[in-house]
Write a structure and sequence with these properties.
It is built from 4 helices and 7 strands; from the N terminus they run ββαβαβαβαββ. It is of the alpha/beta class. The strands form 2 sheets. It has a 4-stranded mixed beta sheet with strand order 1-5-6-7, with helices on one face.
Length: 167
Amino acid sequence: MSEIVNKVANSKLIVFDLEDYYPDDHVIALDISQWLFGGFILKETEFREQLKNTDWSLYEDKYVALYCSEDAILPAWAYTLVAVHLAPFALKVIHGDKKIAVIDWYQDILNKLDYTEFFEKPLILKGCSKKDVPNEIYTLAIQKLMKVSKSIMFGEACSAVPLYKKK
């Protein structure tokens, strides 16, 4: 009986796993309805007072997604005023849901990433993830990786789908 050889482990393939860059607790959704009267009416004086009394340090070094869970009609300045309070603490404030903030997080990470280790190498863009990596990020990642890699497959080494091969 011959020894079983792991050909994947011995190959030159490099796995690019977007989960490695997942923001975990660096992205927080913040519902501004908590500062509205009855959850959906903005009373300016009370709104400003509540914002003034909020502990904004909870959002330090976070990407904060501002949204309103209620069907309230809010002036644009309401979100802007919350952003003013968050700005000294948060890394970034986004108007939208958490998914939009996660996408923004990934865009910033992928735009700053050093891709030299992937130069002229065969890659696998890992597709099976335990974390909720948005599909939009795979689209962004492939565009970044195509500029440097020799080839790119998607999925797992045992069942990868070819996506790109440099000519």
